[in-house]
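Researcher: Go.
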Amino acid sequence: MPTDLPAPIRAFVGATNAGDAEAFAAAFTEGAHLNDRGREFHGRDGVRSWDRTDHIGKRSHFEVVSAGPGPDPDSHVVVLTVTGDGCNGTGPMTSRPRGGRIASLRISPA
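Model: Structure:
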C-alpha cells in the first residue's frame, strides 16, 4: 500500500484487506456519511450495516491503483480495484477526513 495515503484511507484499506470489521468501522467518524453509488448510509451504524452486506461481509479486497487530491481542498480520491464476492471492478472513492477519521466517503461508478 502506498505510504503517502492519508492515515484514514490507509486504515480503511488495511482493515478491509484484513477483514477486520471493527477496525473498518473505527476508520470512520461517529457521524460519517457513506454514499455507495447513490445508496446512503449514515453514522457508524450505517457504515457497519453497509460493511456487513456489501463489503467485508462479501470478503472485499482492495488494490490501490492511484491516489491524489480530490475536487475540494479537504478531499482525497483513491482509485481502487475491488475483488471479492460482491461488486468487483476498478473505480474512484472520494473521502473527506475529519479528526483523523473518514467523515464522508463517496463510491462512484467506474
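Model: The mean pLDDT is 93.
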